[in-house]
Structures are given as C-alpha cells and as structure tokens.
C-alpha cells in the first residue's frame, strides 16, 4: 500500500495534514488527533510508529489509538472556567492595587500610624502577588487551548534568552542570581519560532530556577548545541536543591508543585512548567529535566532550526529524546 492511513479515517479531520501523515520519510513515531463532528463528536488520539525491515524499508505501521473525547471536553470546560475566574478576579484587583499607593502617598506620617502603614503595604504586596497569579492563569488558559496558533519567525537564539532575562528583571522576580551564558549560544543557527511565546517559556524556566533555590549564591547557566535532523537543543542549568526522581515526571503537570517540605513554601499556582511544556510541544519540540538532589537541575528543550522547519507541526517529534535513565 502507498499509505498507512486506513480508509475509514478519511471521514475525520486530523490535527496534522494528511500529506504529512502519509510521508514515509517522516519521524519514526508520529502523534496526532483525529476528530469527527457528526453524527456524534468523537476525538481519537493516535500514535503511528513506522516499522522497518533489515534494509531500512518500511515494512508496516503500528497504530495505537485511544478515545479521548470525554477527556478533551473536560479540558475545554476547565479552561473556560479558569478563564472566567481569572477575568472576574482581575476586575476588583485594579482598584485595590490602584488605591494602595494613593493612600501611602496622600497620608503623611502624622496621619498614618506605623501599624496602618504596614497594613496598607502588606495589602499592596499581597495584591500584587494575587495579580501575578491571575495573569499567569489567564495566560495559561490561552496557551493551553487546542486552537493555539503560532506566529512563526526566524530568530537568533541569544536574543530570546536576553529578552527572557529582561522580562523577569522587569517583574522583579530574579533577585540576586548569577546568570551565565555559554559561548556556544552565539554559534547556534536561527530557529523558526513564535518569539513571544518562546520568550515566555524561557522566562518561566528562569523563574523556576530562581524561586525554588534557597542558596545565597544562586546561579543559572544557559547552553545549547545543534542536533541532527534540524533541531536545536537549549539547556538551563541551576545549582538549586535538585528534583527527586519520583517528582520529575510530575512537575510539568498543571497545578503541580513539589511538597513544601522539600522546596520550602513558594508562592505560585504550579502553572509555570506546564506552560513551558505546552509552548515547546506546540513547536514540535520536547522538554525534560535531569537532576541530582542537592546539586541542581538541567532543563533541556528542543526547537526547530529555521532553514529546516518553516512550519513545524504541533505534534511532531524531534530526533532528540529525553534520557531513559536519570541520575538519582
């Protein structure tokens, strides 16, 4: 047969073009969704693995299919709820945060006791924390949507890191931290990405490496190298507390944070790394972590090289894969 696609799937719409799915030279394993609207909604998640013989020729295909209709519908309801709550919370925060500096400015020390001043200052600080959480929640509901669209452009890697650092600096979320950039960053080829979303993802990794690190001499090192088949591998290494092996598969889940007893109580909604994963996978890449408890962690992600992947598919897989065995 000239195509691995069963004829019955022609009645479905796919998340990837059929031409891509029929390409015998594509990645060994391809993940995608197919959807049928009528007579009843049906969404099926598929993974197709190309099987080759000793000579390297295609001998067949292994299909794994799973009905994810209820799962996707529940996810859509969750996004709508979170988006609604986020926008509802944003409205009352505007006057709260607006009046705090006004009160502190208008009331001089004679009209405001020290206790009152501390109370108003605390209201402003906690209101700002809540505002940041609300904005991250709204941002995530947009990025997590299945209809996410990327505005792709050719971009050098170093400016992406620089903008991510500036974004965290403007938000006052870096504090004292030594940022190191390997010289290999400037030698990397341009990537084809949605710069705004990738910068937000890198900024999320920087924030994660800082806020969970209690050491006084915190540092983060950025590195990268070109991989085969048109992919660039970027790394962010920190000297934080590390991540236990049983937690590494969970930290990219929505609303998940490692136990406070291990990391210390840190504000946040557990959406930062989930956002990173969504953005990277939307570009066709992968993100994973390697870590040693007490020594630090290295987050790795892959992005498509501009000259090779002008329009990377949201669910295609790069050649680079996470290590099967992680350091304990």
What does this structure look like?
The chain is α+β, with helices and mostly antiparallel strands and 328 residues long. Helix content is 36%, strand content 22%. It contains 7 helices and 11 strands. The chain has helices at 18-21, 69-106, 114-143, 157-170, 195-211, 260-263, 272-282; strands spanning 13-14, 29-36, 42-52, 58-67, 153-155, 178-181, 191-193, 219-227, 231-238, 287-292, 296-304. It has a 5-stranded mixed sheet with strand order 6-8-9-11-10. A 4-stranded antiparallel sheet has the order 1-2-3-4, with helices on one face. Helix 2 (69-106) packs antiparallel against helix 3. The protein is globular and about 85 Å long. Mean pLDDT is 77; it is low at 261-265, 308-321 and 323-328.
Task: Summarize the SSE layout with pairings.
Blueprint: E1 13-14, H1 18-21, E2 29-36, E3 42-52, E4 58-67, H2 69-106, H3 114-143, E5 153-155, H4 157-170, E6 178-181, E7 191-193, H5 195-211, E8 219-227, E9 231-238, H6 260-263, H7 272-282, E10 287-292, E11 296-304
Parallel strand pairs: 6-8
Antiparallel strand pairs: 1-2, 2-3, 3-4, 5-7, 8-9, 9-11, 10-11
Helix pairs in contact: 2-3, 4-5, 5-7
Task: Give the H and E element order.
Answer: EHEEEHHEHEEHEEHHEE
The helical percent reads: 25-40%
The average pLDDT value, as a whole number, equals 77
- The residue ranges in which pLDDT falls below 50 over 5 or more consecutive positions are 261-265, 308-321, 323-328
């Amino acid at each position: 047969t000239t195509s691995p696609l069963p004829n019955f799937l022609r009645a479905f719409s796919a998340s990837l073009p059929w031409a891509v799915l029929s390409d015998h030279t594509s990645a060994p394993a391809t993940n995608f969704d197919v959807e049928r609207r009528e007579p009843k909604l049906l969404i099926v998640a598929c993974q197709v693995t190309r099987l080759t013989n000793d000579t390297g020729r295609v001998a067949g295909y292994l299909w794994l299919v799973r009905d994810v209709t209820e799962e996707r519908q529940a996810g859509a309801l969750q996004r709508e709820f979170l988006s609604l709550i986020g926008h509802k919370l944003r409205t009352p925060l505007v006057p709260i945060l607006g009046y705090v500096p006004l009160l502190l400015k208008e009331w001089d020390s004679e009209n405001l006791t020290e206790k009152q001043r501390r109370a108003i200052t605390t209201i402003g600080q906690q209101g700002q924390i809540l505002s940041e959480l609300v904005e991250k929640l709204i941002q995530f509901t947009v990025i997590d949507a299945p209809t996410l669209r990327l505005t792709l452009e050719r971009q050098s890697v170093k400016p992406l890191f620089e903008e991510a650092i500036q974004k965290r600096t403007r938000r006052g979320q870096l504090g004292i931290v030594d940022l190191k950039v390997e010289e290999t960053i400037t030698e990397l080829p341009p990537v084809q990405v949605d710069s705004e979303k990738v910068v937000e993802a890198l900024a999320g990794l920087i924030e994660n490496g800082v806020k969970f690190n209690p050491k006084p001499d915190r540092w983060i090192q950025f590195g990268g190298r070109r991989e085969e088949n048109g992919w660039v591998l970027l790394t962010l290494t920190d000297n934080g507390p590390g991540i236990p092996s049983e937690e590494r598969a969970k930290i990219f889940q929505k609303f998940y944070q490692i136990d406070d007893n291990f990391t210390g109580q840190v504000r946040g909604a557990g959406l930062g790394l989930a956002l990173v994963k969504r953005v990277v996978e939307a570009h066709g890449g992968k993100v994973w972590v390697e870590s040693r408890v007490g020594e630090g962690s290295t987050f790795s992600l892959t992005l498509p090289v501009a000259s090779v992947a002008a329009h990377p598919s949201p669910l295609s897989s790069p050649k680079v894969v996470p290590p099967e065995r992680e350091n304990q």
